[in-house]
Specification:
single chain; mainly alpha; three-stranded parallel β-sheet; 6 helices
Length: 149
């Protein structure tokens, strides 16, 4: 743990903890931190800590079924680098969701205003709603084809 922490540049780290020590540490970090707390584990002794963390990550390839059951995210190939990829994908998904919501609301409000000001046939509102749904689904599907750097 010392060698890896110094090589990677991690200032605070813990090792050789019992399951209840891990739970106590996660709870303490959650109390003393404003941000979200994530816990990465692979075994039965990590399941409780994975469960109580804000984002529980399990290494699914060699991990126990209990850890995988309690996790929010499961890394199937046991590559720790994938944790960063999952974070980037979550940011992309969140940004896309916010864009979809804001764009949908703006377009719907503008169609409502158009319908109130002018005599617009009903098919325009139906077309705007259906077309908007298709556009938002396609925009969400584009997340699948984005490359994570």
């Amino acid at each position: 743990a010392d060698a890896i922490a110094s090589e990677v540049g991690i200032a605070e780290y813990h090792y050789e903890l019992l399951p209840e020590d891990k739970v106590n540490l996660v709870e303490e970090i959650k109390r003393n931190t404003k941000g979200k707390v994530s816990f990465v584990g692979d075994g039965i002794n990590d399941a409780a800590s994975i469960r109580i963390s804000d984002v529980g990550i399990a290494m699914g390839g060699i991990g126990s079924d209990v850890a995988v059951e309690n996790a929010d995210v499961v890394i199937m190939n046991d590559d720790p680098k994938k944790i960063f990829d999952a974070y980037k994908i979550a940011k992309i998904s969140r940004r896309t969701s916010i864009f979809n919501i804001v764009f949908s609301l703006l377009l719907k409000i503008s169609v409502i205003i158009l319908c109130l000001l002018f005599e617009v046939p009903m098919f325009v509102a139906v077309l705007a709603d259906t077309g908007l749904t298709v556009l938002m689904v396609l925009n969400s599907l584009l997340v699948l084809y984005r490359k994570v750097k």
